[in-house]
Task: structure prediction
Amino acid sequence: MAAVSATTRRGFLAWARQSIAVQNFVRRGITYIILTFAAVLFLTPLFWMISTSFKTPEKIFLFPPQLVPDPFTLRGYERVLSSPSFPFFLYLRNSLFYAVLSVIGIVLSCSLVGYSFACLRWPGRDAIFIVTLATMMIPFPVVMVPLYIVFKFLGVLNTYWPLIGPNFLGTAFFIFLMRQFFKTIPLDLTEAARVDGASYGAIYARIMMPLARPVVATTALFTFLYCWNDFLGPLIFLSDDKKYPLALGLALLRGQHRSEWDMMMAGSTIVSLPIIVLFFFTQKTFIQGITLTGIKG
Result:
């Protein structure tokens, strides 16, 4: 009787394990199906933009739509790169100048302030940190006119100072991101360095920043993406079209070639491609930086 009972128990446990495995398999399968559908849904506009950029004008509005270009043509790209109204390499240089200097300013200023909030003790630190976070609730359109008046008074309109300069003063979101990451670094490291005679600047440069590579990469990527796609800032502060970045130059191209969709899609693809390539090469570090910043409050 005991042997039968033991056999029944083993059979029940095997059936339960098999049932749980089947449930997990079905659950994962449903999850993957939903995620695949969502990915296809989000990637469809991107695929359609790239596909349209290689089509001839008469093939763009066919019904049913032609997913794969036939014939395959580079006419749109040739027209964009040779168009006098869209000096691509000039706009590319302007965008890189704006984005790279902004990345340097944001990483430098926000890491210093975040290090101060996370690792140094000084009067009013927590209160000032709360005030810094509160500035995140102020949208840019609220301060847009005051900023314009200030920069006009300083005489720096139609230059890149209004776009790049504020980045060297820090941004609340990235200060918060840096502070949260520095909080995850054990205090024993900094205390040991202080015992050995290291200054706060040496601790920041030689210990904290090398350990903060994931969050630095995340901050740099976010900043680069924002500056690359920034339209409103250059539109407000720049009036010389020779200083336009790619985002503003693309809008100018759209205004002059509104009905030439192959040309418009080719220009949009050219502007979007560097961001897509950059994200694919940095996504591992980007995800790691976002994950680690939320470990410790």
